[in-house]
Amino acid sequence: MNKSRIIITCAKGIPPFLREEVLSLGFPVLSQGVASLETEGTMDDAMRLNLFIRTGQRVLFLLEEFRAQNPGELYSQLSRIAWEDYIYEDGYLCVTSSVDNPTIKDSRFANVKSKDAIVDRIKKRRGRRPDSGPERTGAVIDLYWKEDWCQVYLDTSGEPLYRRGYRKIPLKAPMQETLAAAVVLATSWDGNGNFVNPMCGSGTLAIEAALIAQNIPPGLIRNNYGFMHLKGFNESTWKELIKIAKTRIHKSFRHKIIATDISPEAVRAAKQNAAAAGVERAIEFAVCDYSETPVPTGQGVVVLNPEYGERLGELKELEGTYKGIGDFFKKKWTGYRGYIFTGNLELAKKVGLKAKRRIPFFNSNIECRLLEYELYEGSRRSGNGF
Ligand SMILES: C[S@@+](CC[C@H](N)C(=O)[O-])C[C@H]1O[C@@H](n2cnc3c(N)ncnc32)[C@H](O)[C@@H]1O
Q: How far is CA 27 from its chain centroid?
């Protein structure tokens, strides 16, 4: 398949980090949106992006674009595309969409209309039609329809990329894997120094840090992608990409990655998740209060994602926790950079240290900040406690 435009979707707040990743893989960035970024390449490039990108959700390969005023025009335009060249007549198809057209009240209707156009065309040409449904485990077609402009994409990821496949036990309020990767990248930590993650929960931050430190592409953990279900899937290129990626993995790691949590259940889950990701030997786990987390000699980053009262925890109690984290940073972590990821800026004021940077992120729909504190002897107290 020829070169085309490729859209990589992501959560809001993540495009600057996704941009760095895309550029460092040697792709151009044609444009950047609130929750996406546009590049270009071939299907082989799309496979490479799926394998290496840490912070993106879906890699969408543009197939066609056209005008359609209403569902009837959508159907007839889609019927012109040679779907029999892309989708197996005995395969499985899922259609997803993002629709903003005055004739459509429910985007599910656009999905059904599109699916009908695709399977009717395949039935006409091949004598049978693929099964279809909501699972993204086979071929996935994505429709973006704004006013009368339609773009039709092959969703080369299938299931979104945050589903790395290692989180066997998610626990409560886990961070999406792609968000955790962006948080690690935002700290500028790249394996140079220690990475300490008290309050680790299901271990997502520590696991993503270990993947980064060992140069393990997140796509290696998963074995199902949308592109694998399309005709023309170049399996030998995919195997070659994987082979090359494996030779670049750093087997050993000089510094420490430490993950602790007060809950034995959380630490057990984090260990199992790390094992599923193949990085359990890179992380030291312990059950303890955050304030008892061992401080490895040397330098590095210490990252906490405390509960922030939206989904878990009681606010009053959390005020004490946030204040305690400020004291913990000041007393123990000289020479480190400290980070708190939170969706509650009122609670963040209780930390009582002046944040050097406040990096915006979104966790589901909650606006969050990654707060950075430089920790040195007598770290600066903030006037307003923030
Ligand atoms: C929001 S969750 C962290 C989620 C994590 N980032 C993930 O992706 O799964 C907060 C965690 O802090 C832990 N926690 C709460 N109070 C603690 C304390 N005083 N010391 C250590 N851990 C604590 C909870 O057990 C919970 O696992």
A: 19
Element (DSSP H or E) covering residue 300: strand 300-304
- pLDDT tens for each residue of 321-360: 999 999 999 998 988 999 999 999 999 999 999 999 999 9
The letter for the amino acid at 206 is: A
Q: What is the pLDDT of residue 386?
A: 43
CA separation for the pair 315, 265 (Å, rounded): 23
Neighbours of 91 (CB within 10 A): 17
How far is the centre of ligand 1, averaged over its atoms, from the C-alpha of 111 (Å)?
39
Ligand 1, pocket-test mutation among 262, 323, 370, most atoms within 8 A of CB: 262
Contacts of residue 200, defined as CB under 8 A and 6 or more positions apart, other chains included, come to: 206, 259, 260, 261, 266, 267, 270, 285
What are the pocket residues of ligand 1 if the criterion is a CB atom closer than 6 Å to any ligand atom?
171, 173-175, 198-199, 201-202, 204-205, 261-263, 266, 289-290, 305-307
Cα 236 to Cα 47: distance, rounded to the nearest angstrom: 12
pLDDT greater than 90 at residue 158: yes
pTM: 0.95
Protein residue closest via CA to atom 27 of ligand 1:
201
Instruction: Give the helix ranges, DSSP H, for 250-312.
Output: 264-277
* Distance from the alpha carbon of residue 42 to the mean position of ligand 1, in angstroms: 42
pLDDT at residue 120, as a whole number: 98
